[in-house]
Amino acid sequence: MKRSALSLHATRMAVLALALGSLAGCESLNDMFASDRVNYKDTPSAPPLAVPQDLSSAPGDQKYVAPPPTATLGGATQRTVTAAGNATLGVPNTQDPLGMHVERDGDRRWLVIDGRVPADVWPQLQEFWTSNGFTLATDSPETGIMTTNWAENRANIPDDWFRRTIGRVIDFAYSSGTRDRFRTLVSRGPDGQTDISVTHSAMEEVLTGQDKTGSKWVERPRDPALEAAFLSKIMQKFGLTDAQSKQLLTDARPSSSAAKVAAGPDGTTLDLPEAFDTAWLRVGLALDRTNFTVDNRDRQKGIYYVRYADSMKELKGDGLLGKLFYNPKKATNEQGPEFLVAVRSTSNAQTQVAVVNQNGQIDTSSDAQRIVSALHAQLN
């Protein structure tokens, strides 16, 4: 499957390409299949990803938004030169001489940019993902959600002699049998900083049937090391060196408090012994680790709007055939009901998390309780 021989999916694409070839020249074919030949690791504008040693095992259209006061004449956020000589996007201080640091919760890490609000970093993140070979499926500065389309890591395909010679002519017909997608959550921190997290989702094509003539896509586990590698590259985009970014990942500061289940007459909730700002970020990260996807979020109301994530249906919408026959409106209707996850501050250092209905009352359905259980597992 992952050898250089044509996979079932690649064979179907190759047959379609040959048919189209009789109607169009090579140049138009290359354009048509460009999105299916994405190699986000080997894109010329993106240096090869390097996993840190300690992880190797493991609003509206932006052109109508006024630039922040710290922006230069060209609209880009003003950078500060650190004592180490970096032109950093963050604002250096005594605690963070590079203007940023990394925090962690278990195997999850997120970047904290000092002295910047989400509007300061959003354009940089847009440029980062597109320059690394991705297109953006969700680009919502209002909610702080940025999601890439499913893309193939072409570096997973063996570069044997056949592919280096004859295979170059029909390179699009080769497939690694894997697809990856990344979600970036951008949140305003409690002390005027911005928190940035990256979550990886993956699918893999496997052979089925006794004679292995069929195939299907199945989910693969997220890769924390790959998430960290991209977080490292984001830090370099923001002005750090490769060595500095990896050192911040290694020195990630723990930020974790156990969530306690509170069963009351009105339903089951979770209690977090931390302030709202920290709890809001951690709940968002926890939701990303479950089989639920965040459609929208309203920080002012403390609400995450989530649905069950069916990666199979989402993957069908990508690629040439998906774009021709996939109906996104129909797919949205088939995704199932939307759930509201409420994050409410009960005191300066206590936050309650619950699944609620449209009236703000605790949802006592079995599905809602499964979400609470999943969050409890991820927050501990």
From TrEMBL:
Record carries keyword Signal: yes
Record's signal peptide: 1-24
Keyword Signal part of the UniProt annotation: yes
Keywords: Signal
Name of the molecule in the record: Outer membrane protein assembly factor BamC
